[in-house]
Amino acid sequence: MSSAEPSRRPPAPSRTRTILEATTPKRALKSFDNLVALANDQEVLRQAARKLVWRDRGEPVVQINDLEDCLNHALKGGARAGALAFGLRSGVNLFLLLFRVFKTPKDLQFAIVRHAIFGIDSLRFGSMIGSFVAIYKFLYNAIPLVTSSTPSSPAESPAVLPLYISPPSHHGHSNMQPLHRILTETEKFVDTPGALEMPSRNSGSSGLNTPGGLSAKALEHQLWIRKKGLRRHAFIAGAIAGAIAIMFERKDRRVGYAQQLFVRGLQGSWNHWTHKKGIHIPHGDVIVFTLCCAQIMYSFTMRPDAIPRSYYNWIHQAAKTVPQSVHANMTLTRDRYLDVGDIQTLLSHKVRIPTPANRSLLLDLVNTASTNPAQLPHHGPCGMVHPWMDSCTMVQVERFVEVFTWMVPIYGALHLIPTMIFKRNVFFKKPAPLIGQTLLNTIRSSTFLGIFVIIFQGALCFKVNAYELFSSPQRRPFKLPAWLVRFFISKPSFWILGAMSGMSLFIEAQRRRGELAMYVLPKALESYWHVSLGKLGVKRSIFRGGESVFTAIAMGMFMSTYQNSPQHLSSVARRLMYQLMGPN
């Protein structure tokens, strides 16, 4: 055979089909592939739906290249935040409704539930939050695009902050300093606005040993929030967005929202400043709470016009007091006269029925007020403050039980809802431990308020009894200075009672003390303001749109802290804002 003759190879044998391939129709195989694809698509949809309602920790910032991207990012974020706020407000309304819906007539139950879910309050709240997020996102991301200029030379290009990544040690751990110390040092490195560039997402840093054990996304977010030059952008964007968004709420609620937002912003700014200066005040939250309670309870007893009427009524409801007793005590102590109508209401009360001894005391007060007002006592006797009980000690027991049982469902909602939101995976997998912890926290918080009330009530009875004892030469065991005896029934003594009641905050958990201090701070500041205006003889008024200006200042401070030093905000405020706003 010549070499030029092509070699002949036997043809390759054809593959024999398997029994499964021979017996399974092609249409069935295609259907199986479709089922697999559908299952994968469902998983993708499930993950996408989860991201719509929950942000994972360390979410990377969204790169904004132009104003069109900025507008799309703002609209999407605003719609998402508005829907979440609407659902959250409706959920809270529905939870609180469960405790009283069965007490209402059946023909009204559906209407009440429908209003709780789709009522105007939920719509207003969702519109307020959604508009704030949309406006803030647009302004915060648009301001750098409008104000920045393209560098003309490499020397003018922004510096890139090194990540300070070091190889792991022999023990498998990085030799890096804690992340917060590294980031604090980076603040000194970046001296000009825009001096920190975002690290690339495709830099392949997944295999690097990042500081603090954080992922690349988490580190990217931490470096983003430390970028210099953005604090003023966050303040401007937060101020404008807050001033516009607050207008969606009812007018009677705007001041309340503005007050709470102001103290949150003030808290963040104060924590940032004290951390920067190295200042630490032990039990500062308790001190703030004590001073606030002193002013609030003074206003409640002596200057009810200095606090909002709704808050004044809430204190009455929470403390289980009789309004006529509090008012009669105020007029006797402050104005040296007695409103006979208050005493007549106490005498005819259907629930708090006066005891025989206290009824006789009340009748004597009415007779003295009618015949010889100058002989009226300059304080409210205990028989007038709690006419349904003779014993001052038993009043404390009764008051504690009433306050405790009334606050259990309220504090239960306040503890349970954040647990279900922020620890939902653990809650649904192992609900028993979290429910038990929530129950303990509810009991603790209800005990705190019960102790608060009985401290004030007990101290009030004590100072009244002390005055009656030491002002009588026949009864007093020893003589006290006259100024001290008069102080027992003076107006400033009620300020002291409020401060004493504030010490009950030590019963609460450490993490909640700051939250409670921030809750009462705006009420106390408002009371101080109104009392000061009254002392100066200034007519109390507020210019039109003042709540918008107040909210603008509040959200400017809050968002400036959130974007640059979020660790200085309270945990609840920071996590809620992150779920609504994201990193940018």
Description:
There is one protein chain. Helix 5 runs antiparallel to helix 8 and helix 12 packs antiparallel against helix 13 (about 340-345). It is elongated, with a radius of gyration of 33 Å. About 30% of the residues are buried. Mean pLDDT is about 80; it is low at about 150-215 and about 225-230. It has helices at about 20-25, 25-55, 65-95, 105-120, 120-145, 180-190, 215-225, 230-245, 250-275, 285-300, 310-320, 325-335, 340-345, 355-370, 380-385, 390-420, 425-430, 430-470, 480-485, 490-500, 510-535, 545-565, 570-580. The N and C termini lie far apart (about 80 Å). By secondary structure, the protein is mostly helical. Among the domains are: about 65-145, no CATH class; about 155-160 and about 175-230, no CATH class; about 285-535, no CATH class.
Task: Output the keywords.
Transmembrane protein 135 N-terminal domain-containing protein; 584 residues; 23 helices; transmembrane; mainly alpha; transmembrane helix; membrane; Tmem135
Summarize this entry quickly.
The protein has 584 residues and is mainly α. Helices cover 67% and strands 0% of the residues.
Number of distinct beta strands: 0
Poorly predicted residue ranges: 149-214, 225-229
SSE pattern: HHHHHHHHHHHHHHHHHHHHHHH
From the alpha carbons, calculate the radius of gyration and give it in angstroms: 33 Å
Overall shape: it is elongated
Global mean pLDDT: 79
What distance lies between the first and last C-alpha atoms, to the nearest angstrom?
A: 80 Å
Largest sheet: none
Structural class based on helices, strands and sheet pairing: mainly alpha
Strand content: under 5%
| Residues in helices, as a percent range | 55-70%
Number of helices: 23
